[in-house]
Amino acid sequence: MSTRARASAVFPLPIDQVWAALRDFTFPGQLLGSTIESCQMEEGKSGDTVGAVRTTTWKSGEKQSHRLLALSDLDYSTSWELLMSEQPSEVNAYIATLSCTRVTENNSTLVTWEIEFSADCTGDLISFHQKGLITNLAEMRTSLTA
Question: Looking at CB atoms within 10 Å, which of 7, 36, 63, 77 has the fewest?
Answer without folding.
Answer: 63
